[in-house]
Amino acid sequence: MKNLAFIGAGNMNGAIISGLVKNGYPAEKIMVTNPSPEKRLALQAELGIQQSECNIEAAKFAEVIVLGVKPYLISEVCQQLSEQIDVTEKCFISVAAGSTIAQIEQALGQPCAVIRTMPNTPSQMGVGVTGIFANAQTSDEDKTLTTSLMQSVGIVKWLASEQQIDHIIAISGSGPAYFFLFMEAMEKQARAYGFNEQDSRVLVQQTALGAAKMVSESETSISKLRENVTSKGGTTQAAISAFGEGGLEQLVTKAMDSAVNRAKEMAQSN
Ligand SMILES: NC(=O)c1ccc[n+]([C@@H]2O[C@H](COP(=O)([O-])OP(=O)(O)OC[C@H]3O[C@@H](n4cnc5c(N)ncnc54)[C@H](OP(=O)(O)O)[C@@H]3O)[C@@H](O)[C@H]2O)c1
């Protein structure tokens, strides 16, 4: 098994490391870095991994380097690494939203394996979705390793082109917020019907959980599941007709296209 360096001990890298170790990846083969000590020391204490303040030390130790810093720091971190180590022998996996493979390659300054992943927030609870695309220098072995790395926080989807990352951002990346927004609106209406704050929350969250569980545990299409609870002339049909009259489908298309366009703009400005 390869030695892994995790640059940044924040939420996302922390979740991946935790998932990996819990799935049996040897803790001594993992080193995490962070400028401030608290998070890296906590991960060491909890999981038995190695930790350092120094990105160069971790990069020398590892064959695979996971870049888990904020997108605006990715180029700076890569440039520093390329000045001190032979990056052509390493594989770089980025979890940073919006940093393109070309930007990372440029910062590294040498041709090397670069893999771009786009996880989402529920990855922090092990139920995430990660879209992945790798450049031509990446070996099959490193692709397989990336799959198991990201599977430790959810499901993975390999993409045919890097442009598809923008679509993944609009679907699973921003998607949790769409569902939160919908739940918020339902919660607000439950309050308007006189339910207290706690009951409104529980009623909405359990309904969302039940619906998600029905989708994930059934082979029936989502539209059929919806039809099954929509009796002709009934209450659900009345509600769904109101959504239709309000243009819900077109609105979802518009919202997701807006996310795709913003992802493109952000990739250009990073
Ligand atoms: N969180 C998510 O749900 C999510 C989803 C998709 C993608 N991502 C991506 O994951 C990346 C990390 O996000 P996050 O939410 O995990 O952020 P985070 O919790 O803020 O973690 C980033 C960590 O990087 C550390 N750091 C800063 N400068 C560093 C340096 N030069 N070298 C090493 N470490 C450094 C920070 O340390 P200090 O706190 O001490 O400054 C911090 O602990 C981002 O690029 C983001 O786009 C996150």
Descriptive report:
- This protein has 270 residues and is α/β, with parallel strands linked by helices.
- It has 2 domains: 158 residues, Rossmann fold (3-Layer(aba) Sandwich), CATH 3.40.50.720; 95 residues, ProC C-terminal domain-like fold.
- It is elongated.
- NADP nicotinamide-adenine-dinucleotide phosphate (NAP) binds next to helix 1 and helix 4.
- NADP nicotinamide-adenine-dinucleotide phosphate binds next to helix 1 and helix 4.
Q: How are the SSEs placed, and which strands pair?
A:
Layout: E1 4-7, H1 11-22, E2 30-33, H2 37-47, E3 50-52, H3 55-61, E4 64-67, H4 71-84, E5 91-94, H5 101-108, E6 113-118, E7 128-134, H6 140-151, E8 154-158, H7 164-173, H8 175-192, H9 197-216, H10 222-228, H11 235-245, H12 248-269
Parallel strand pairs: 1-2, 1-4, 2-3, 4-5, 5-6, 7-8
Antiparallel strand pairs: 6-7
The chain binds NADP nicotinamide-adenine-dinucleotide phosphate (NAP).
Number of DSSP helical runs:
12
Mean pLDDT across residues: 96
What's the helical proportion of residues?
55-70%
Q: What structural class is derived from the secondary structure elements?
A: alpha/beta
Number of strands: 8
Distance between the termini: 34 Å
* Alpha-carbon Rg, integer: 22 Å
Give the second-level CATH assignment, the architecture of the largest domain.
3-Layer(aba) Sandwich
Total domain modules: 2
Reported for the largest beta sheet, the result is:
8 strands, mixed
